[in-house]
Design a protein that fits this description.
Layout lengths: L2 E7 L2 E7 L1 E7 L5 E8 L3 E3 L6 E6 L2 E2 L2 E2 H11 L6 H19 L8 E11 L2 E16 L2 E13 L13 H10 L4 E6 L2 H21 L9 H22 L11 E7 L2
Antiparallel strand pairs: 1-2, 1-12, 2-13, 3-4, 5-6, 6-9, 7-8, 9-10, 10-11
């Protein structure tokens, strides 16, 4: 498991994640042995800023590290007609592969976000598609994990009454309050969201009172904010969790694409 942040600001879209991969081995029954952590990328970008992709959950797909499998998917889909078609292609392909991979009645959760810009009503607007085989999130993490995957476009559910031409202004208002629009996925989101709420409040005060800090004004500024959130959560695991429980950590990767 890990932490995945998707943020949409008037300057563009950002995907960020930690690097730790938890290596496990299944034993008899439901016994799972934690073998430790290694580091891999969990956020990827298409060439020429066509799209962004990030995942949490299963560390392997088709016998490959998940990031390598997803890089191959990107290579096979450098061009695509729409994000809806691309998301459905990814959903079908990862479901087919996971069905081949799973030798147990208890599949691992896999959550993928796919984002970018497409034109609606003559204006470039952000879209974020949500591909998953986990259909509930409880205190113990992702639940109701199936061998089937679903995908849906999620971003516009939060702005049902905003016209495409007005969405950037709406996001600007949120960002100016230091409350950018976000999706979060990962391990123990209750703890992460609490820490990030206080972290943003602290940085808002810092920007208001410290001459060396200013409110984010560029995509690079927002990348630093996303990286800080991920690294802070990694520090929490390093301080409070033991060996074999570093489910978040190992540094941070952030990728972004600018608003066209």
């Amino acid at each position: 498991m890990s932490i995945l942040l998707v943020e949409i600001v008037p300057q563009g879209i950002l995907f960020g994640a930690d690097r730790n991969i938890t290596e496990t081995r299944r034993g008899a029954g439901s016994l799972v042995e934690i073998r430790g952590q290694s580091q891999r990328r969990k956020v990827l970008r298409w060439p020429r800023n066509r799209a962004l992709l990030g995942y949490v959950g299963a560390a392997e797909i088709g016998g490959q590290p998940a990031d390598e499998w997803l890089y191959d998917f990107i290579g096979d889909n450098l061009s695509f007609s729409s994000f809806g078609d691309l998301a459905e292609n990814l959903r079908a392909r990862v479901e087919a592969q996971q069905r081949k991979d799973e030798n147990t009645e208890d599949p691992d959760p896999l959550i993928i976000h796919l984002g970018g810009f497409e034109e609606r009503a003559g204006a470039p607007v952000p879209v974020v598609w949500y591909i998953r085989n986990a259909f509930d999130l409880g205190p113990q993490g992702y639940q109701e994990v199936r061998k089937t995957f679903e995908c849906s476009e999620e971003f516009w559910n939060y702005f049902p009454n905003v016209a495409p031409a007005d969405i950037r202004a709406a996001l600007k208002q949120m960002a100016e309050r230091y409350e950018p629009f976000w999706f979060h996925q990962g391990f123990d989101l209750g703890t992460f969201n609490t820490l990030e709420t206080y972290l943003r409040a602290a940085f808002r005060l810092l920007c208001e009172n410290h001459p060396g800090h200013a409110f984010p004004a560029t995509l690079d500024d927002w990348e630093r904010q996303v990286r800080m959130s991920i690294l802070t959560y990694g520090a929490y695991f390093e301080a409070y969790r033991g060996v074999g429980e570093q489910y978040v950590g190992g540094g941070a990767d952030v990728v972004s694409i600018p608003w066209p």
